Recover the amino acids of this structure.
């Protein structure tokens, strides 16, 4: 007799387990040796080990069989996958929950399965190699003992909160009962991953060994546990007043940091508090309800879609690279010794330590300074002569944003390197067709737009012009993948994608400032919408020279909508350069702390209305005023095929500019508002804004409105 579960069929008549007859299901292999040790292997046939409805149903059946098999004396839980234990919940399944009830049922049923594992009646041991995340770690926490390999790829953590969820299979209840409260909160709330050694020090893992010894050590330890009484490990007790103060401090910090945009950290905090105040089952019930509410909400769905988009784009880059450039270039060159060149080299050293690196400085003095920066690295060679780059497989030019200077340097470089060497330029807005005019062989020329700071910003725009060959693009993708970046292929056009959208937003903020809103109101409105920084703080951080040079390039090519209004231009004209210089829109001290607005850039209305706060309706209207031009420009970039997919725009703006992730990105946010409402709002903003700008929404929006289309069709990202 059989029953259907999702797309899988599970026998309802219990099969037997013997040493001669292992049990094999879609997602598991179970074996029994003659000493009574059962091996429960996660072994999902369709892809990576993840936990969904079918997997949990299979696990429930397996645990029932193990419990009723008298020959079983102990159980080792492991993975048949070479590179991971369990990645966690099946996010595709979570994304398609019909409602909160479906999410609650999965969480509650899954919790019961892990309760069955914890109460199996025989010693259980998790044998962990590779990533053990989310539901995988929750499964491990339900076993009596945890043994992990010391391999660098063995990482443990709970990624749920950054996906808008909380651990829903017992993680918020079992972890605080096992280890120090602060450590448990930190692991759950930050979504960070830790190594096996770090997990051992915290008390999550009981022992660490080499990968080669993992199975033998697991068998040896389990035999020791069989027939013995291992006292359960209990977390150290904190004083009630210490706990109360800790939770109050964290909640206050979340209110400031997340406003009301991200409910998951608050729910995780509540769930952990329940672990301290309630018995296990009561805590699990609360966790399941909290998980279900979050899983059915818009925020988690948007954050999961962002995760999928980044994963898809990263894998696409890796596939593209594997066709033409399976191994990243190992002899790397950089032209320039400024901040960007220095940071690029640092990331190379961190992620490609075996690479040979050659740097070309503008003069001997700069070469000596750059050499001193990397004096600890024998694989970094520096010279003021271009000939140092002669053996490079790929060179990135990273000098100042000046067309003529870049053209000259690139032409000189071409004369010194082999015909196979890939020549890249790091530019934030300049078209490659112009920059490559002095090159005789433009098919190996590509753009790599890094964002500052290079070590923290994941996104890199890979710019291809019509002559760029697939091999050239693939070499860039291969190198960036090795640097652990997210490479996004974009069309060669002024400003590319991110800076084009960011600039239209920043210039609109300048117009609104000149139109009568105060600096404080505009900064506050952006942060309250969910941006990490206000617009004028961001300009100061990036530097006024960069921001206005990009705006000039864009306005020269696309017209008045990118032109810096006088309100902003005057700040640059009086000599303010931004944070690095101590003065921009704001004053900054030497430590980088923002002190307040510069008095000489303020309007009379800034001083007169300094303390005037906007009503909620005024705030909503202001936020639409600065967001709508960005949404229009995003649609225009799609229309012009700067990128191919809406998800590429949304991911780029979230990880490249800090556009609020909870919205899913500008185009998903437009879908949320509705295309008719977006179009109406854009027309209203354009009609209301002064400065005699003649602006009209892009034709794509009118076409979508007429046909009833959205940027994202159902199930399509």
């Amino acid at each position: 007799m059989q029953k259907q579960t999702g797309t899988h069929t599970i026998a309802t008549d219990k099969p037997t387990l013997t040493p001669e007859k292992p049990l094999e299901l879609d997602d598991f292999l179970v074996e029994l040796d003659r000493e009574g040790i059962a091996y429960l292997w996660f072994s999902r046939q369709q892809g990576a080990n993840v936990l969904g409805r079918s997997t949990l149903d299979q696990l429930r059946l397996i645990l029932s069989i193990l419990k009723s098999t008298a020959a079983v004396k102990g159980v080792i839980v492991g993975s048949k996958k070479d590179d991971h234990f369990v990645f966690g919940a099946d996010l595709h399944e979570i994304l398609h929950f019909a409602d909160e009830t479906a999410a609650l049922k999965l969480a509650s049923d899954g919790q019961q399965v892990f309760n069955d594992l914890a109460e199996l009646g025989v010693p259980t041991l998790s044998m962990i190699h590779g990533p053990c995340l989310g539901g995988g770690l929750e499964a491990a926490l339900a076993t009596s003992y945890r043994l992990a390999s010391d391999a660098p790829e063995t990482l443990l953590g709970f990624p749920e909160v950054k996906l808008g969820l909380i651990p829903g299979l017992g993680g918020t209840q079992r972890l605080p009962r096992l280890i120090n409260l602060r450590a448990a909160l930190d692991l759950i709330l930050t979504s960070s991953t830790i190594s096996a050694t770090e997990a051992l020090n915290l008390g999550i893992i009981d022992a660490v060994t080499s990968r080669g010894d993992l199975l033998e050590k697991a068998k040896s330890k389990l035999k020791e546990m069989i027939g013995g009484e291992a006292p359960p490990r209990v977390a150290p007790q904190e004083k009630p007043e210490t706990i109360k103060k800790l939770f109050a401090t964290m909640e206050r910090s979340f209110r400031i940091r997340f406003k009301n945009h991200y409910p998951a950290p608050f729910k995780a905090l509540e769930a952990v508090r329940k672990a301290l105040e309630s018995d296990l089952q009561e805590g699990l019930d609360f966790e399941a309800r909290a998980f279900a509410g979050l899983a059915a909400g818009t925020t988690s769905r948007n954050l999961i879609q962002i995760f999928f988009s980044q994963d898809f784009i990263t894998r696409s880059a890796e596939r593209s690279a594997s066709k033409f450039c399976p191994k990243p270039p190992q002899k790397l060159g950089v032209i320039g010794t400024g901040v960007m060149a220095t940071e690029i080299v640092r990331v190379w050293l961190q992620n490609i330590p075996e690479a040979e690196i050659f740097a070309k400085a503008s003069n001997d003095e700069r070469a000596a300074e750059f050499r001193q920066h990397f004096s600890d690295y024998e694989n970094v060679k520096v010279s003021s002569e271009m000939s140092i780059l002669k053996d490079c497989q790929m060179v990135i030019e990273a000098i100042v944003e000046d067309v003529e200077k870049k053209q000259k340097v690139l032409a000189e470089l071409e004369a010194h390197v082999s015909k196979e060497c890939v020549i890249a330029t790091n530019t934030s807005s300049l078209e490659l067709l112009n920059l490559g005019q002095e090159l005789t062989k433009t098919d190996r020329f590509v753009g790599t737009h890094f964002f500052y700071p290079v070590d923290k910003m994941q996104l890199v725009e890979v710019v291809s012009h019509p002559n760029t060959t697939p091999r050239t693009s693939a070499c860039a993708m291969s190198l960036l993948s090795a640097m652990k970046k997210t490479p996004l292929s974009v069309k060669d056009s002024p400003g590319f994608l991110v800076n084009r959208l960011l600039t239209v937003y920043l210039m609109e903020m300048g117009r609104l400032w000149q139109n009568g809103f105060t600096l404080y109101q505009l900064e506050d409105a952006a942060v309250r919408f969910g941006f990490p920084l206000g617009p004028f703080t961001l300009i100061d951080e990036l530097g006024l020279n960069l921001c206005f040079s990009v705006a000039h390039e864009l306005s020269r090519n696309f017209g008045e909508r990118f032109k810096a209004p006088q309100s902003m231009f005057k700040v640059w004209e009086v000599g303010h350069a931004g944070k690095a210089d101590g003065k921009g829109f704001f004053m900054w001290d030497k430590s980088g702390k923002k002190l307040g607005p510069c008095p000489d850039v303020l309007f009379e209305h800034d001083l007169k209305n300094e303390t005037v706060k906007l009503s909620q309706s005024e705030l909503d209207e202001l936020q639409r005023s600065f967001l709508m031009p960005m949404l229009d420009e995003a649609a225009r970039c799609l229309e012009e095929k700067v990128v191919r997919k809406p998800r590429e725009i949304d991911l780029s703006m979230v990880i490249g500019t800090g556009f609020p992730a909870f919205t899913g990105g500008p185009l998903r946010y437009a879908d949320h508002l509705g295309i008719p409402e977006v179009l109406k709002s854009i027309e209203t903003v354009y009609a209301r804004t002064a400065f005699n700008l003649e602006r009209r929404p892009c034709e794509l929006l009118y076409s979508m409105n007429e046909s009833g289309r959205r940027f994202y069709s159902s199930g399509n990202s």
Observations:
- The chain has 28 helices and 22 strands.
- The CA atoms of residues 30 and 40 lie 5 Å apart.
- The longest strand covers residues 37-42.
